[in-house]
Specification:
single chain; mainly alpha; Four Helix Bundle (Hemerythrin (Met), subunit A); two-stranded antiparallel sheet; 2 strands
């Protein structure tokens, strides 16, 4: 007795196991947003090199150029839907160089040598202030990354590192026009550096402006306010120059949150007393 011949497989038979296999993900990175992040990193690196070569005005400018690249890379990634985990990690590392190390080294190179002439203690105060800034920038970025998923997108907890870098770089850029700042100017520079670092790790809430959209309707009064601000910026720019104007803008942003907190606390105290 012969065994029955096997039934031939139908040409329409589909191998479901093959279809259910997980296809390996393509390896690679998105070019445009990471090129912009590289521009941010290069600007921070250039600021460090320029400060070492005693070219403090270009060093300050480079930090602000890094801010432009840092603003563009995230927005371009969201608009083109090219966000990735690699891009987020790369952006964070570039921020540490451009807004953590670069401002600290620029301030150090500009002032520590001068302030050391007034005594060894003043020199130690200078480099400790710069190191404190670098540490707080790292802590600020680490906290931001750890809480990014649950944080309120409308506000930043603590002063953003680009804004803190703008204050330090703007101060050095504006102060580089002095022939001899003197002990008072040097103390002010390192005090500004230390305060900017402290604000980065503070609990103050700073508006992020991420919810701001140009295509939504606004009141007519808001339009007039924008026009007045533009005119005021143009007048100040013509009178003082870019470094002083940028320092005033980011300095105002930095003190806004502590000022609002203090006003609210005083109001609560008055209500409790009443």
């Amino acid at each position: 007795m012969t065994s029955p011949s096997p039934i031939p497989e139908s040409p329409l038979h589909v191998d479901h196991d093959a279809d259910n296999e997980v296809k390996p993900r393509r390896k690679g990175i998105y070019l445009l947003p990471n090129l912009l992040t590289t521009g941010c990193l290069f600007s921070g690196f250039y600021a460090i090199v320029a400060a070492i070569d005693k070219h403090f005005a270009p060093a300050g400018m480079a930090v602000f150029v890094a801010m432009i690249f840092d603003t563009l890379d995230g927005r371009i990634a969201r608009l083109t839907r090219t966000e990735s985990a690699f891009g987020k990690e790369y952006d964070s590392l570039a921020d540490m160089v451009s807004f953590g190390l670069a401002p600290a080294i620029v301030a150090y190179q500009w002032g520590v040598v001068r302030i050391a002439e007034y005594g060894r203690a003043w020199g130690r105060f200078g480099w400790l202030a710069c190191f404190f800034y670098a540490v707080t920038a790292a802590l600020r970025l680490a906290r931001f990354n750890a809480r990014a998923a649950t944080a309120d997108k409308r506000y930043f907890e603590g002063l953003p590192s680009p804004s803190a870098a703008a204050i330090v770089a703007g101060f050095v850029w504006a102060s580089s026009q002095w022939r001899e700042p003197g002990l008072g100017g040097l103390i002010a520079a390192f005090a500004v550096t230390a305060v900017a670092g402290a604000l980065m790790v503070s609990r103050f809430g700073y508006p992020s402006f991420k919810q701001f959209k140009l295509d939504r309707r606004v009141r007519f009064v808001s339009l007039l306010l924008v026009v007045l601000i533009v005119v005021l910026v143009a007048v100040v720019l013509n009178a003082t120059g870019p470094p002083t104007l940028l320092l005033a803008i980011f300095g105002t942003y930095a003190v806004s949150a502590p000022t609002i907190w203090l006003v609210r606390r005083l109001r609560r105290h008055r209500r409790t007393a009443a």
